[in-house]
Specification:
Blueprint (H helix, E strand, L loop, with lengths): L1 E6 L3 H6 L2 H8 L3 E5 L10 H5 L4 E5 L9 E5 L5 E4 L4 H4 L4 E5 L4 E6 L7 H24 L3 E6 L23 H12 L2 E3 H5 L8 E2 L11 E2 L2 E6 L6 E6 L11 E5 L2
Parallel strand pairs: 1-2, 7-8
Antiparallel strand pairs: 1-14, 2-4, 3-4, 5-6, 6-7, 8-12, 9-12, 10-11, 13-14
Length: about 250
Amino acid sequence: MRILTYNVNGIRAAVTKGFPDWLKSVEADIVCIQETKAQPDQIPSELFEEMGFNVYIHSAVKKGYSGVIILSKPEPLHIEYGIGIEKYDREGRIIRVDFKDFSVMSVYHPSGSSGDERQAFKMEWLHDFNNYIGKLRKEIPNLIISGDYNICHKPIDIHDPIRNAKNSGFLPEEREWIGKFIDSGFIDSFRYLNQEPHHYTWWSYRANARSKNLGWRIDYNMVAEMLKDKIKRSVILPQAKHSDHCPVVLEMDS
C-alpha cells in the first residue's frame, strides 16, 4: 500500500504544472493533499476519478485559502470532515478516511510565520489537536496522520538550525510539541528508515533556496507505533516541482 502526502500550494496551480500526469506515474493508493486553496467546485475531481480515485474534499470557508483532500482508490467505510471545533474546521485543516484495519488523515497544521496572532493560533491548534488525537486513538488506534505539520523536529531537519532558532516552524515550544507527539505513540516514518541529513520537503521561493537545497522537513507521514512493523519504505521526492513543497511517500504492508 502506497500513501503519499503533498502540500500542493494551490491545487489549480499544481494541475497547470502537470500534477495529474505526475500522479498517475507514482501509482499511489491513498493521496493526502494540503493547501488546496480552492472550493469544491474549483477542484478538478473528474481528473482524479478517471485515475480510479474516490475524491474527498474539505475546503476552507475563506476562498483561496487552506483546504485538504484525500484521494483514495480503496473505498473507505467512513469519511470524517474536521474535528468538531468551528474555528479550525472553517479553515479546512483535517479530513480522515476510515478502513477496516486502519485510518488515514490528511492534516494541514497552521503556519505562524505571518505574525504573533497566527503563532498564538498555531499553538492553540497544536494543544487542541493533541487532545483530539489522544481521544481518537482510543477508538481508532491504527492511525496514519499525513500532512504538512509546519514544524521541523530536530536540527537535522532544517538547513540552518542556528539562524532559524527563533523562527516559526523551529521554535523550541513547537519542537517540544512534535517530540512529545511522537513519543505519545507515533513513528516519524521517514526518519525511522532514513538517518541522513539534507532531506527536506519545503523550500522558500527566495534566494534560489531549492536549487541550493536550503530547505525544511515539515511534511510527515506519522504512523501509529503498533503499525511499525508494516512500514517498508519512506522516501521524499524533491524532483516533483508542482509546489514549494514536495511529496513524501510511505509504503506499508497492507
